[in-house]
Structures are given as C-alpha cells and as structure tokens.
C-alpha cells in the first residue's frame, strides 16, 4: 500500500541538527539550528523560568483542556509584550490574540485563516527567508513569491529594490516581514527604513504578516518590536506571529502567539472566532505547561525583571561572540566577508561561504553551519570561537 511513498529528503535545519547529535567527534561545534547556547555550550534554563516552574510544581493541579484560544493570562501578557503595554489598539480591544504551538503554529493558523478569507491573495517572503516559511505557507495552499532582500555583494540590504517590489504588489497581497534579527541573513531594516515601508504597505492596501521569533535578541524588547508598533499605529492590516522559544529558552514547550489587529473590537471578536476555528481544525487546543510558565514570568514583577536582565545578558554575549569571530578572521578573509559578523544582528549571520566550503567545514573541522552558509552565532563561545575562525580561514584559503 505504501510502496509509492518517497523518502523524506529531510529538513535543511532540523535534519542537520540531528546529524550533529550523531557526530562522534569531540571538537564538534553546532552553529546550525537557531538555538541559544550559553558560554559553557549548554542550553540555558532561565532563572525566572526555573523559579516559575518550581512554584508551579508545588501547586500542580488537574489539567483540563485549555480553551481553543489558549490561556487568558498568557494571551494578554503576550499581546502586551508584542504591541506594548500602552498600545492604543490593545486598549481599544482591537487585537485578537491567541496562544499557539510556538511561532510555527502561529504562522500555520495565520496562513489557514488567510487562505480561507483571502483565497485570491498570494504571499511574498524575503529572498532569502527562513526555509520553513515557504513550507508552511505552501502547506496552507498559498502561492509563495519572493521580494528582493539580501545583497550578496555587500552582505547588506537591497532596500530600494525591496521597496520597489512591494510597491508593485496587487492589492490584498500578503507581505511576510521579519520584525528583527532576520533569519537567515541577520540583516534588518533600520527604523528610518521601516518608516518608509509602512506607508507603501498602507497605500498598496497590503496585508503585513510579521514574524517575530527573536524579540529581545536585537536591540531590546521594545526596539525589536518597532515595526509591529508602527504598522499597528498606521492602521495597516496586520498579523503578527511571535515565539517564546528563543527568548524564554523554552523550545520544546511550543509557546507562541498569533495576533490580528482589527479596526474595531467587534471585528476582533469575529476574527478571533475564525482563528479558533482554524485551531480546532488543526490541533483543537494548545498545551498548558509552557503557557503557565510564560504567563507567570511576564505577569510577576520580580520574575519579569530577572527574565529581562537574563535576556539582555544573552543578547550581549552574542554581540561579544560576533566581535571575537570578527577579530579572529582579520587578515584571513576579505573585509566584505568579515564585516558582516559585526554589522548583522541577532542569532544569525550569513557567512557568504559556498556550499563546498560549508561541506569542508563539516567534514574536516566538525563545524556545522547550514548549507546556505547561515551560521547561528549563538552557538559560539569562548572555547570554540577561535577554532571556528581558524576553520573558516582554512576553508576560505582552500588549504
Ligand atoms: N520564525 C522564524 C523566523 C524562526 O527562525 C523560527 C525558528 C520560527 C519562526 C519557529 O519558531 P518556533 O517557536 O520554534 O515554532 N527557527 C529555528 C528553528 C527551526 O528551524 O525550527 C531556526 O531557524 O534554526
């Protein structure tokens, strides 16, 4: 019966991470998947999360189903974090927010909603984008196109081309934007550039779909949400998928949220109902544990302060590692290839390494970066950064 089923070629990110786990070499370095490791190379349990979890275990109780939209305290806290506690749209009750299975679940529920109510609309993602964007949106039946984004020559942004392409899209097209810490390139829009994009989306009557998986890893929790706040204030039809996988180091708990900014409270109630219907059709309702942790940390002043401070430390450590590898490559690679380590932001840098060089890095040096050349700089630490720099220098020199 199943003879005709072809083998799954694997996922470019998750499958490589699995290969890494199986690699027996002691000097191996995992710079493939977007996971933050601490300076000891360990996946951190954030102190605020540990404290919230200890308290929760003491008060463990029955576990019924959550509502389709998720835990109310979590939804409210997530909305405040994404849009700002004093957001006008939030105060007016115009934002429909629901708990989702990570950022991926938010993208999928949002995609199903759009496919159902905007069946003629197509989506445009950056070139390049997180590989799974295409997979999720095509899986929901949407046609996926790209707009110009990354400039290979400079390691920067093709801003004029991006703006021009967005300015030509048919009305009601969907534009996927990365709020901050662009995956895979690490190249973000400046606040001035966002201020130019927003009116174009508005004028062309487009739908902005913002993916915010790295809030807090760029400049700060507030600054990283600049585009979300500006789009909401400008009244651009806006959908936001946010993830707590990285900024709470809660990858396996699958904590995310989906928000749709509407023009009235009444409209938001109708939209929320249809998002719930998409949840019911996918997985019925979300899980309890991680949501309780996130909600309790965000709503308790002491836990929240601890979480924010630890997140800032993580962000600073990434910056320090960017500096270390930038120094380590001095004199070994050209300046265009080197400058990006400090010019780009967040967990990722597009190294500009060729596929053959990436393969040599893995085969000969046990250093894992994605085939596309994407490096997760959050996997670097004081013990491996020099080794990674010298390995890159060696493959670039072709020795
Ligand atoms: N959006 C972006 C931009 C993103 O990088 C990820 C994960 C997600 C959404 C998914 O978030 P989650 O809450 O885990 O569902 N990216 C890393 C892991 C992965 O590919 O699944 C990565 O790029 O390595």
Q: Can you tell me about this structure?
A:
By secondary structure, this protein is α/β, with parallel strands linked by helices. The protein has helices at 14-22, 47-58, 72-83, 88-91, 102-117, 131-139, 159-166, 191-203, 226-234, 265-282, 289-299, 301-328, 335-343, 355-365, 385-397; strands spanning 29-30, 95-101, 123-127, 144-148, 150-151, 156-157, 174-178, 207-212, 238-243, 255-261, 348-350, 367-368, 374-376. α3 packs across α11 and α8 (191-203) runs parallel beside α9. The mean pLDDT is 97. The protein binds ligand KET. Ligand KET binds next to α5.
The main pleated sheet reads as:
7 strands, mixed
User: How many helices does DSSP assign?
Assistant: 15
| Radius of gyration from the alpha-carbon trace, in angstroms | 21 Å
Query: How are strands sequenced across the largest beta sheet?
Result: 2-10-9-8-7-3-4
In total, the number of strands is 13
Which whole number gives the mean pLDDT?
Answer: 97
Bin the strand percentage. Answer: 5-15%
The residue ranges in which pLDDT falls below 50 over 5 or more consecutive positions are none
Small molecules bound in the structure, each named once: ligand KET
Main structural class: alpha/beta
Helix coverage percent: 40-55%
The oligomeric state is: single chain
């Amino acid at each position: 019966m199943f003879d005709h089923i072809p083998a799954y070629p694997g996922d470019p990110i998750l499958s490589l991470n699995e290969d890494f786990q199986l690699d027996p070499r002691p000097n191996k370095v995992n710079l493939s998947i977007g996971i933050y490791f601490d300076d000891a190379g360990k996946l951190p349990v954030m102190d605020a999360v540990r404290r919230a979890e200890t308290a929760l275990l003491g008060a463990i109780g029955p576990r019924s189903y959550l509502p389709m939209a998720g835990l109310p305290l979590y939804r409210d806290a997530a909305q405040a974090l994404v849009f700002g506690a004093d957001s006008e749209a939030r105060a007016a009750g115009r934002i429909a927010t629901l708990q989702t299975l990570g950022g991926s679940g938010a993208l999928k529920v949002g995609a199903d909603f759009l496919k159902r109510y905007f069946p003629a609309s197509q989506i445009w993602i950056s070139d390049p984008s997180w590989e799974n964007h295409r997979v999720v949106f095509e899986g929901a039946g949407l046609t996926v196109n790209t707009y110009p984004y990354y400039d290979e020559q400079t390691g920067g942004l093709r801003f004029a081309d991006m703006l021009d392409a967005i300015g030509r899209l048919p009305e009601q097209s969907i534009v996927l934007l990365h709020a901050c810490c662009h995956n895979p390139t690490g190249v973000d829009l400046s606040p001035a550039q966002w201020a130019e994009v927003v009116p174009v989306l508005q004028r062309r009557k487009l739908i902005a779909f913002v993916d915010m998986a790295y809030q807090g890893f760029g400049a700060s929790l507030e600054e990283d949400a600049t585009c979300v706040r500006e789009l909401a204030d400008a009244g651009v039809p806006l959908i936001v998928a946010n993830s707590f996988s990285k900024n709470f180091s809660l990858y396996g708990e699958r904590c995310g949220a989906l928000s749709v900014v509407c023009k009235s409270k009444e409209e938001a109630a109708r939209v929320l109902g249809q998002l719930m219907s998409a949840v019911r059709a996918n997985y019925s309702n979300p899980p309890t544990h991680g949501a309780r942790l996130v909600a309790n940390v965000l709503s308790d002043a002491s836990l929240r302060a601890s979480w924010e401070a630890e997140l800032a430390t993580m962000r600073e450590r990434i910056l320090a590692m960017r500096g270390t590898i930038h120094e380590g490559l001095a004199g070994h690679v050209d300046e265009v290839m080197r400058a990006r380590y400090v010019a780009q932001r967040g967990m990722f840098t597009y190294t500009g390494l060729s596929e053959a060089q990436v393969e040599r890095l893995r085969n000969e040096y046990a250093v894992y970066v994605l085939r596309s050349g994407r490096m997760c700089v959050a996997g670097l630490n004081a013990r491996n950064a020099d080794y990674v720099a010298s390995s890159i220098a060696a493959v670039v020199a072709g020795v």
